[in-house]
Amino acid sequence: MTNVLAALKKAGLHKKIKVSSTHSLGVLSRSFPPSAGAFNSKHAHFLKPLLEFLAENQSPFMIDLYPYYAYRDSSNKVPLDYALFESSSEVIDPNTGLLYTNMFDAQIDAIYFALSGLNFRTIKVMVTETGWPSKGSPKETAATPDNAQTYNTNLIRHVINETGTPAKPGEELDVYLFSLFNENRKPGLESERNWGLFYPDQTSVYSLDFTGRGPVDMTADANATSSNGTTWCIASSKATQIDLQNAINWACGTSGNVDCTAIQPSQPCFQPDNLVSHASYAFNSYYQQNGASAVACSFGGTGVIVDKDP
């Protein structure tokens, strides 16, 4: 970091570009209540010189905050609405009397209190990553498009309103959403591949109002349906064979996570043995598993929504 700063000074950019390094919330040994926030002592050997560098150069302390993980790992203690900025009740810090209506603020303030505990009171906190997954493994029940949309919409409103946090009222929040695209090849749990606002084919996972002024519209991507409300997703007859095969590979692979056993040889849906038929099976399976929304029938333009049972 010192070398990077030296290079910036040489280029005359050190006042415009700040040098820092991001951390996970795991850098804390305690985060609740926020006033008890404290850095893990085993990190002291590098934290002290790092914080001295940040304070001297007016650089922010960068942190990745994920209320989703706090809820997922401790759902018996953390209410979902508290993690989603939807709580109607308040959590009181017994040491300060400060009232918290969401976990995001509590996590930020825990960092501020940890910094203050080491006598670094002038360093600002920058949230370099936060978000909510739109899809997860079977046990990750909170990873849904609705919850992801709710979290990110409420987060944007919170930042734009410039209310700050209970410990830092009115202070501007510097926050970055994670992430722009789903990382469909990332290993790990299903949620690891589904933090994005867009699919790899550039279609949106859910609608998001970046102005912070609109309502949370859970039906923004819904389609016109048949008279009984049922729709299906099938392969377009205009799609090329290459595009259909690529779409099948995506839907039946780790990204789409569709069980395509039924369209394998000797299985009940193998016939008729052609790409349009097989793609339609894979497309509709993915479409129904993901809320029958318009974005779940994109497949790079090879999917078509119909209101008659194919």
UniProtKB/TrEMBL annotation:
Q: Which SUPFAM superfamilies match?
A: (Trans)glycosidases
The alphabetical list of record keywords is: Cell membrane, Disulfide bond, Glycoprotein, Glycosidase, GPI-anchor, Hydrolase, Lipoprotein, Membrane, Signal
The yes or no answer to whether the keyword Membrane is present is yes
| Subcellular localization(s) per the UniProt record | Cell membrane
Superkingdom of origin organism? Eukaryota
Q: What is the catalytic activity of this protein?
A: Hydrolysis of (1->3)-beta-D-glucosidic linkages in (1->3)-beta-D-glucans
Q: How does it sit in the membrane?
A: Lipid-anchor; GPI-anchor
Q: Matching InterPro entries, A to Z?
A: GH, Glyco_hydro_17, Glyco_hydro_17_plant, X8
Query: Recorded E.C. number(s)?
Result: 3.2.1.39
Can you supply a Gene Ontology BP term from the record? carbohydrate metabolic process
Tell me where in this chain the X8 domain is found: 231-310
Task: Give the Pfam families listed for this entry.
Answer: Glyco_hydro_17, X8
Q: Which family does it belong to?
A: Belongs to the glycosyl hydrolase 17 family.
Among PANTHER family, the record links this protein to: GLUCAN ENDO-1,3-BETA-GLUCOSIDASE BG1-RELATED-RELATED (PTHR32227)
What is the designated name of this protein?
Answer: glucan endo-1,3-beta-D-glucosidase
